[in-house]
Design a protein that fits this description.
Elements: E1 4-8, H1 14-26, E2 29-33, E3 46-54, E4 57-58, H2 60-68, H3 70-73, E5 77-83, H4 87-101, E6 105-111, H5 117-132, H6 140-152, E7 156-163, E8 166-173, E9 175-177, E10 180-185, H7 189-196, E11 199-205, E12 215-225, H8 231-239, H9 244-248, E13 255-268, E14 279-283
């Protein structure tokens, strides 16, 4: 699992509040001031250096820390953030750090205050995306085979749907066919969400037996509700051994949700033994 270390100054000020919000998004993550930095923190994968700026002057403690630790920092991936300044002032202030760290800097940003919530979250998500690009990836064909096997070996998923403040997560039995998940259901609030917002998320996982043996995946995709007279709908019914007589005996209409995938995040403790990162990501072609 890739980890992020955030090093900052600005205790009880804007910077600390921003850092705490970033750590929530970037997790697994830790944060500390320059004085609280420990030797074993050097083993983290991504570093974020956050410093308050006064005028165009960078915090002295941050500058000193970077200069004293530049020999190992330049071999890491680093995000830079300055706080308490306007955009132009922040860019100028960060140039000093960029000149020291060079190509180790993967992203930088000026965020004026902790009230800029959307900016904080978007910057954190971008750093997270960059961090994921450093994963030791399994060959795509091998990963796809493992994904298919894992989904086929289970039959229950958690289906999350949402629209505005209306959120729903429902455990559902599913069918996996031709790279899609199909869910049969008589109805419910999840359908209201899908009608209004077809973006969904699914989780499938093994029961956790111990901290060192775990496996599960998160699936992101789009849902559609199949028309009842289509061959695709009839094929799903056949796979569940539901004939016309059984269908007609039900108290309500049996609807079918089809979920097309666009991204799977597959986590497994087994991947490390194979020489890969424990988190693997598979992207599907746009549909």
């Amino acid at each position: 699992m890739q980890r992020t270390m955030i090093i900052y100054e600005g205790l009880e000020e804007t910077t600390e509040k921003i850092v705490k919000k970033m750590a929530l998004v970037l997790g697994p993550a830790k944060y500390c001031t320059t004085e609280g930095f420990k030797e074993d923190y050097k083993n983290y994968d991504l570093f974020v250096i956050a410093a308050p700026v006064s005028g165009e002057k960078l915090d002295d403690k941050i500058l000193k820390f970077v200069m004293e630790n530049a020999t190992w920092l330049i071999n890491k991936e680093i995000g830079l953030i300055c706080t308490g300044a306007e955009k132009d002032q922040g860019i100028k202030a960060l140039k000093k750090l960029q000149s020291i760290l060079g190509i180790a800097v993967v992203h930088c940003k000026t965020i004026k205050c902790d009230k800029c919530i959307e900016e904080i979250v978007q910057f954190s998500l971008e750093l997270k995306r960059i961090r994921e690009s450093f994963l030791k990836s399994m060959p795509k064909e091998d990963l796809k085979k493992r994904i298919d096997y894992f989904i086929n070996s289970h039959k229950i998923c958690d289906l999350a749907t949402g629209y505005n403040n209306w959120i729903r997560c429902t455990p559902m039995e599913y069918i996996y066919k031709d790279g899609c998940i199909y869910i049969l259901s008589e109805g419910g609030k999840k359908f209201a969400n899908i009608i209004l917002n077809n973006r969904v998320s699914i989780s499938i996982y093994e029961e956790l037996n111990n901290d060192s043996d775990w496996e599960g995946m998160q699936i992101r995709g789009k849902a559609e509700i199949l028309e009842l007279d289509t061959e695709e709908y009839k094929e799903v019914l056949k796979l569940k051994d539901i004939d016309e007589a059984k269908l007609n005996s039900m108290p309500g209409i049996l609807n079918c949700i089809k979920i097309n995938f666009d991204k799977i995040e597959y986590l497994s403790s087994k991947f490390k033994a194979l020489g890969y990162s424990s988190k693997q990501i598979y992207y599907y072609k746009p549909f």
